[in-house]
Amino acid sequence: MLRTFGSYELPFGARGFILRDASGVVKKAVEGWQLSWVLGMESGPPLSVTATGAGSTMQNGRNWPILVRSDLWNDKQGKARMAWGPQGEFIAGTYLERDYVKVLDTNLCNRNRVSETLYLGQCKNDTDINRIVINDSAPYALALAERDAKGMLIPVKYDRDYMGDDGVNYKAGDNVIVFRNADQSDGRNASGNYKGGRMTSQGRFNFDMAASKSVEFMEGKRFEIRVDVQNILNHATPIGSDSPAAMESGGKYVSIDAPTLTVTSSGAIGLMSNKGGHRTFQARLALRF
Q1: Residue of 189, 180, 199, 200 whose CA lies nearest to 65
Q2: What confidence score (pLDDT) does residue 157 get?
Q3: Both 54 and 113 in a single domain?
Q4: Partner residues linked to 269 by β-bridges
Q5: Same structural domain for residues 215 and 189?
Q6: Where in the sequence is the domain holding 147, given as residue range(s)?
Q7: What is the mean pLDDT of each run of 10 residues along the chain (289 residues)?
């Protein structure tokens, strides 16, 4: 965390070098103005990629997934990319430098690899086992994605057989899986191999300024004016899925919700669906005697 502040008296009037010899009214109007500022920069807290172990509840409270392709995942990524609409409106942001998409975790939803009970319970909800009907609670995996001609995200496919870092042999034509769920049905890889806190979440940046002036118009009586500007650069920051009202007060951040990095659910990965922080002005007048 870095926080710095300061003030500077503008060089106008009798104590400056601009309009020093101006008439009395002009000199009174321009002298004594002071600028002050507060700059704050803060790195984000540790961020984890999470998943739910399939086949049972999380073992020992752990929900770490299995990283299949370490060459397609960068722990140092984490600069928000924002998407804007045709009218300049904010659409959404993502916290990942690559494109990924959720797909069915076929390592778990595969009758040749898991028990019939797990397969029917987690992956199918139809009595006809010859039909593939995905259960709402089916486990998802995270696959590398690319954009088609219409700009939609689609999974990238292997062009040859590939042995993943998880020891699973992926066939040509399979989705390029980057993360999958830990298989807790029989204890294999139950705690995953990607431990928590390896990434860094969204940081915070605030730059506030104020301009103030004090004028003595009678002995012992002063008139003061002050204008405060929060987030003077109008710096917008994408935040997570919670309400922006809970993240900032006026133009100053209170907290920033982390991007969604849950592998298991069907929701988008790395999504930052809101933005917070806007420039606000506040003026104050005071008469002191």
Answers
A1: 180
A2: 94
A3: yes
A4: none
A5: no
A6: 49-196
A7: 92 70 71 89 85 52 80 86 74 83 79 63 53 56 90 91 89 92 66 84 86 82 89 80 55 66 79 78 90
**Number of domains the chain contains:** 2
pTM of the model: 0.70
Q: Are residues 173 and 124 in the same domain?
A: yes
264 touches 52 (CB < 8 A): yes
Could you identify the residue written with the tokens 């928000």?
Answer: 80
Q: Which residue has the tokens 């922080």?
A: 277
| Phi, psi for 30 (deg, rounded to 5) | -100, -20
What is the enclosing helix (H) or strand (E) of 25? helix 24-30
Residue 118: what are its φ and ψ, rounded to 5°?
-65, -40
Distances (CA, A) of 32 to 38, 55, 214, 221, 287: 20, 71, 7, 16, 16
- Residue appearing with tokens 């803060």: 42
What is the DSSP track for 219-270? TTEEEEEEEEEESTT---EEE-SS-GGGTEETTEES--PPPP-BSSSSSPSS
| End residue of a domain, out of 161, 196, 231 | 196
Asked which of 196, 216, 244 is the last residue of a domain, the reply is: 196
Residue 191, φ and ψ in degrees, nearest 5: -100, 5
